[in-house]
Write a structure and sequence with these properties.
- The radius of gyration is 17 Å and the shape is elongated.
- The protein has one domain (5-131): Arc Repressor Mutant, subunit A, CATH 1.10.10.10.
- It is mainly α.
- Helix 1 packs across helix 3 (38-50), helix 1 (5-17) crosses helix 4 (75-82) and helix 1 crosses helix 7.
- The chain is built from seven helices and two strands.
- Strand 1 (54-57) and strand 2 form a beta hairpin.
């Protein structure tokens, strides 16, 4: 399982910002530090602003800042906001009709792994990601 580019970039952006959560981060600085195209970054920032993780501050000294403590923003919330968690919780083999009543060959084993992945997503905050320095560019 691999996160989408949108989820990956969103997590990278927010965990980078969480290193200095009180700071106002400009799009220009984020583009330079994270090696994400300006157009794509601005689109993601708009989406993350609409979901309430960050806010946009207008003006010469403007940029983006967090709307709540980074310890209260979890990976699961971000992935759900940009992609939807169901995208990552479906059948590992890609079957649309895979359930306990109609399982694929890997259904039971995948259910255990999927549960662990959800626990990871739900218990890892952006603050924790920033502490671990997970930036890969």
């Amino acid at each position: 399982m691999k996160l989408s580019k949108t989820a990956d970039y969103s997590l990278r952006i927010l965990s980078f910002m969480a290193k200095k959560p009180e700071q106002i981060h400009t799009a220009k600085d984020l583009v330079a530090k994270l090696n994400i195209s300006d157009k794509y970054l601005r689109r993601l920032m708009t989406q993350l602003s609409k979901t309430g993780f960050i806010k946009s501050i207008q003006g010469r000294e403007g940029g983006y800042s967090f709307t709540k403590p980074t310890e209260q923003i979890f990976v699961s919330q971000i992935i759900d906001a940009v992609d939807g968690l169901e995208k990552y919780m479906g059948c590992i083999m890609g079957f649309g009709d895979c359930s306990d009543d109609n399982p694929c060959a890997l259904h039971k084993k995948w259910a255990k792994v999927r549960s662990q992945i959800m626990i990871l997503f739900e218990t890892t905050s952006i603050a924790e990601m920033a502490e671990k320095d997970v930036q890969k560019v």
